[in-house]
Amino acid sequence: MEKFRKFISRYGWFGLVRLFFYPVTTLLTTPVRLIQTLWECRVLLDGKWGDYPHFNPHSVINSLFYWTYALNIYRYGRSGVSPYLGLGNYPLSKGFYYSLISLYAYWGAGAITLLFGMFGWWLFHLLWLEIADPEWLILVMFLSLISTTFYVNTFSLQNYNALGWLFFPIALYGLMTGQWWIAAIGWLLTSFGSITLVFIGGILSLAVSVHNLQLTPLLAILPAGLKTLTHFWPNLIQGNILTTSMNVLKGIGSTGKNTKYKRQSSMGMDRTRWYYALLYIQFGIATAWIGEETYLLWTGIAIYFVNSTYARFADEQSMYMMMLSLATAILIQNENLLLLPFYWLLVSPVPLYAGFPSMKVLDVVPRLKPFTIKPLLNAMEQFLKPVQKDQRVLMVFDNPDNQYEKVFDGYRVLLELPFYIASCKKIHFMPDWWAVFEVNYEGAPEFWGRNVKEVLRNVEQWKVDYVVIYQDNDTELDKEWLDAGFESLTEFCWKDYSTLLQGTTLLTPTWWLLKLPDGKRI
């Protein structure tokens, strides 16, 4: 009832009526929003692609997570060690799940990479012209293009994996038409964009192999699998493949053995996930009712449930794109007007639950545009200006009580900005996610605590040179830090960028870079 009251308070009683009619609303308004957002993309014609990582502030700042790792791999190689990640001397081979082509593309031209990958995904459905009625194919492709799922993935959710989705329809076409050599080429090309999609492709290929009682469909994934195995070579050389694999299993929540930070709210079937599951199931039932094969769709639904409840090996947006891809391919091959409304419900969930981060959305997708990261990068560079190369900065946070979702006090996205600038300046800014994963075992050392006593203890333990503290709404530094001998050097107030971040609900704390009390640095 509390959530219902919040909904009424935010959207009013008329909001319930709008939710009821959302399938019609999205059908009419999403094409308009698509045209408007594409028109905003003309700013990319100036060629400054590196300034525009994404299409909304939340996703832009979050994209710096991938930029940081790309920068470190570029400097030190996949087999190298970075002194500026994790606890220091971080083996970059642990990032075996990154495809370098897509990672570098996303680093250098984020918005362009997303447009190229997603619209390429859409255009590759023209492969079905060989077996589908052209008018039916065009109709289905048009519906997929103006769907909520396509819009939110293109302009809000996707990341470097977009280049993997680019080739996914090729593999799916080969798999569903029994042309295994096309499937093999498609999966191999997909592997250069996303390792996650190779894993999904392997499960789908296995499903086809079992259904057809033949080994050939499974062999189609072999070239992509062999290519993916090359990513593990640095781990084999360095002898840390077991440790790396165990850390990944802990990170995705598939094992709790000797795991310190456990997933709570991010695992399990919450209201939103059940909503999506029902959308997928209703299309599966409708397709089966008219007598068409649906085993691939049900395989996708099974993958969705496993990813939501047991092992989160893929982000939510990958699940959305997987189901969009499967449903679109199935509908193309099964020309039946009765399936269209069920397909539309699957591919166009209500925008309220579509996954637009930090935005007030109900039944109409928001108008978006390429968002420049340059002002924030310049401001953060000034904030960290006093810190010299190879020095270490500790940012202080409350103890998350072993809960994965409470790490970094809810400021995870904002932290990607100093992490990236610190790597650019060759500064070790900690703790980051890689440090959390390194100490993700029971009895591991900690870097938590926000009071002066705890911070001074961590200063000694981690041999840091500077400290960054935050206060949620205060504009003046708490006097306790000055009384303890700390000196405020620079200040970064997120409220100063509220105009730049307009339309989002990102948190707006104030950060201070503090010089340590005399005699506290070893």
Automatic annotation (TrEMBL):
<keyword id="KW-1133">Transmembrane helix</keyword>
<feature type="transmembrane region" description="Helical">
    <location>
        <begin position="326"/>
        <end position="346"/>
    </location>
</feature>
<keyword id="KW-0812">Transmembrane</keyword>
<feature type="transmembrane region" description="Helical">
    <location>
        <begin position="55"/>
        <end position="74"/>
    </location>
</feature>
<feature type="transmembrane region" description="Helical">
    <location>
        <begin position="12"/>
        <end position="35"/>
    </location>
</feature>
<feature type="transmembrane region" description="Helical">
    <location>
        <begin position="273"/>
        <end position="290"/>
    </location>
</feature>
<feature type="transmembrane region" description="Helical">
    <location>
        <begin position="95"/>
        <end position="124"/>
    </location>
</feature>
<feature type="transmembrane region" description="Helical">
    <location>
        <begin position="136"/>
        <end position="155"/>
    </location>
</feature>
<keyword id="KW-0472">Membrane</keyword>
<feature type="transmembrane region" description="Helical">
    <location>
        <begin position="188"/>
        <end position="208"/>
    </location>
</feature>
<feature type="transmembrane region" description="Helical">
    <location>
        <begin position="296"/>
        <end position="314"/>
    </location>
</feature>
<feature type="transmembrane region" description="Helical">
    <location>
        <begin position="162"/>
        <end position="182"/>
    </location>
</feature>
<protein>
    <recommendedName>
        <fullName>Glycosyltransferase RgtA/B/C/D-like domain-containing protein</fullName>
    </recommendedName>
</protein>
